[in-house]
């Protein structure tokens, strides 16, 4: 019920060099649970923004009235990584020792915001639902922690995909829940949902 909404949400997008440079933003309106209407879109060229500073942008919505006020900061990616299983970041004993020292009791007040990190090994899925007419699926896996999101590559024509990837997230709130969702890639169409599991960090 507002024409001037304030969300005050922060999202972290982990930008890698092999991804596109345009941030796409859509604003939607909900009438009820079933009906949604697109109120406008806007696009931000990430490469044109100065790095290591917060950029305040007022973005007009294309072909619609209104604008978005956003703060966008482009900074080096820290604490987040994607790697193959064979080069797991915690596989090195020296690195494990450094991490245990970093989070030991005597250093607990050195950086209050550094709560810790979560490392997830995504190995494989078994007996997925067939989403294609061929009786197969093109599955990929999405991991979400708070407003952080990372995903695996797609394994085509397979109901038992093996990804063998290691994902590392910085933890911002110990009460967050890790959500792992499997989708079927469907070309230019939105991906099909194949399944989901939620893991509270406090249960790990």
UniProtKB/TrEMBL annotation:
Matches recorded under PROSITE patterns: C2
GO BP terms, alphabetized: regulation of neurotransmitter secretion
The family this protein is said to belong to: Belongs to the MCTP family.
InterPro entries on file: C2_dom, C2_domain_sf
Pfam families found in the cross-reference section: C2
GO molecular function: calcium ion binding
Organism: Sinosuthora webbiana
Topology class, membrane: Multi-pass membrane protein
Bilayer-spanning residue ranges: none
Location(s) in or outside the cell: Membrane
Keyword list, A-Z: Calcium, Membrane, Metal-binding, Repeat, Transmembrane, Transmembrane helix
UniProt name for this protein: MCTP2 protein
Chief subcellular location: membrane
Domain C2: 1-59, 93-204
GO CC annotation terms, alphabetical: synaptic vesicle membrane
């Amino acid at each position: 019920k507002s024409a001037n909404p304030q969300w005050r949400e922060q999202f972290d997008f982990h930008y890698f060099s092999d991804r596109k440079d345009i941030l796409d933003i859509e604003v939607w309106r909900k009438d009820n649970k079933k009906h949604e209407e697109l109120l406008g879109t806007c696009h931000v060229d990430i490469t044109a923004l100065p790095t290591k500073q917060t950029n305040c942008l007022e973005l007009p919505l294309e072909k619609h009235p209104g604008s978005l006020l956003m703060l966008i900061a482009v900074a080096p990616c820290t604490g987040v990584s994607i790697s193959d299983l064979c080069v797991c970041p915690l596989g090195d004993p020296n690195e494990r020792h450094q991490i245990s020292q970093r989070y030991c009791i005597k250093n607990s007040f050195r950086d209050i915001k550094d709560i810790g990190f979560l490392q997830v090994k995504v190995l494989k899925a078994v007996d997925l639902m067939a989403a294609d007419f061929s009786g197969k699926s093109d599955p990929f896996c999405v991991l979400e922690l708070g407003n952080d999101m990372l995903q695996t590559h797609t394994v085509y024509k397979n109901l038992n995909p093996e990804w063998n990837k290691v994902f590392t997230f910085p933890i911002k709130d110990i009460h967050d829940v890790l959500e792992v969702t499997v989708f079927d890639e469907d070309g230019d169409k939105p991906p099909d949902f194949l399944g989901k599991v939620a893991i509270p960090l406090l249960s790990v």
